[in-house]
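Annotators were shown the component list below and the corresponding predicted structure, then asked to write short factual statements about the assembly.
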Amino acid sequence: MMTFRRLLVAGLLSASVLWSVPSSAGVAEGKKVFDANKCAGCHQVEGPAKEKTIKDQMAKKGPELWYAGSKFKAGFLEKWLAAPQPVRPLAYNSLTEKNRGDHPRLSPKDASEAASYLMSLKSAEVKPLGIPAAESPKGRILFLKKQSCYGCHSMRVRGKMAGGLSGPSFVAASERLNPDWVYAYLKNPKVFKPVKMMPVYSGILSEAEMKELASYIGSLN
Amino acid sequence: MAVKRFSLTIFLLAFVLSVGASIASAETVEDLYRFHCAQCHGVKGMGDGPNATKEMPVSPRDHTSAVEMNKLTDSDIINAITDGGTATSKSSLMPPYGKTLSKAEITSLKDYLRKLCNCKGKGK
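Structure shown to annotators:
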């Protein structure tokens, strides 16, 4: 009986090791690519967030990536790292300097591996709720009228660019952002970015409104 | 006795250090303004921040204009910062900061705006 149990446990263990291989493929290689390109010089990959003051935030050179796997949609980082296009109209932490779009470009192989590594970095704060991307009238009213999110986040309206420049652009947000993360960020922003230019909306918007907004933002092309 | 005095000194030293640390971590009003307000109102408060693009339906208020700022009472300013533009029947492009900034920080920003416009506001 004991031997059978041992065999069963060993079998299950080896099966779980085998099954976990596909999801972790490229993670170790990606970490090597990340280190070789000195990405940690600008991007924090270990949580939790440590910033306490405006000066701490201003000292950061690029967006933190320690929850990249929860924030981004599958496939986005791989494409972006091979052909980077500015997400922010302005340089990180600047109000005056334009984003020069000079982020280092990786080879397709390195981009794929680095993306695997970054997508393995998840935050337990982002629950897999499966919030759908949907351009609902309620979300649109919140985004355009009630809170005027476009005041800081640019978007495409009938083919034309519109909106403010201080926040990340929402053009093609549907390819980039996981609506579950957008909701988690609205609900508990300080976990992700304790000191930020965007106001805290938790306690101002209801749970349902935050979900509507996450859904709408996730639908923007 | 010596031990008691020693521990008292340690206690006082720790107290002084912790008070010092809490003062050091507080934001200056200039930093608060540059970080939160300047994105629309501009670094110098002239209403020319990077979000003041020409497609916007309204322009951010010029905080250096005494004519504009005299139309507002101190509580109008505090309400607008706390609950957003709609709290004072203005545009929702001015977002609410009531869950972002403390009451003391909002009051210090109101004082800073009065310094920028060099004006006292309606009712004064």
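Statements collected:
1. Residues 28-117 of chain B form a domain with the Cytochrome Bc1 Complex; Chain D, domain 2 fold (CATH 1.10.760.10).
2. Chain B has a mean pLDDT of 86.
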